[in-house]
Design a protein that fits this description.
globular; mainly alpha; single chain; 150 residues
């Protein structure tokens, strides 16, 4: 299999596993992403648009739906009285942690056929691609603490 096919197919595989973990908790993939990003800290709408790669109208709808489910809240931005930040509610924080833990567990099982050295090589190569392309931090590896999750 060539590089392009391998990357595209692996992207679909990870997305499917991620979506299934969310579905079992009543989350859409987009809501799962939003909750994971907000685990680190509240963010403004503009920051979230950039991090999640969404248009303002799409993000507004996502935040509205997630807020209606009691998982996030809008709060005043202490740096700009005209702006709002989106933060997890206590219920949202608990669900985000459950989703994050389950998604990590499932994704970690995907390369089960690789030995430790192969897993390290794969992680290093994929990590370099992510860093070289300046992919926003929306999900980090387990073990880096709740404050570092994003």
């Amino acid at each position: 299999m060539g590089l392009v096919a391998a990357l595209v197919r692996s992207s679909f595989l990870v997305s499917a596993v991620y979506a299934q973990a969310g579905r079992e908790l009543g989350l859409t993939p987009q809501q799962g992403q939003l909750l994971c990003v907000l685990m680190a800290q509240p963010y403004g709408m503009g920051e979230l648009c950039t991090m999640l790669g969404l248009a303002k109208s799409s993000l507004t709808g996502l935040v509205d739906r997630t807020e209606n489910n009691g998982l996030v809240r809008r709060e005043a931005d202490p740096r700009d009285s005209r702006a709002v930040r989106v933060a997890l509610t206590p219920r949202g924080a608990r669900l985000a942690d459950r989703f994050y833990t389950e998604a990590c567990r499932r994704i970690d099982e995907l390369p089960a056929g690789l030995d430790e050295a192969q897993r390290d090589t794969l992680a290093g190569l994929l990590g370099r691609i992510v860093l070289d392309n300046k992919v926003p931090v929306v999900f980090v590896e387990p073990g880096h603490g709740a404050a570092a999750r994003g």
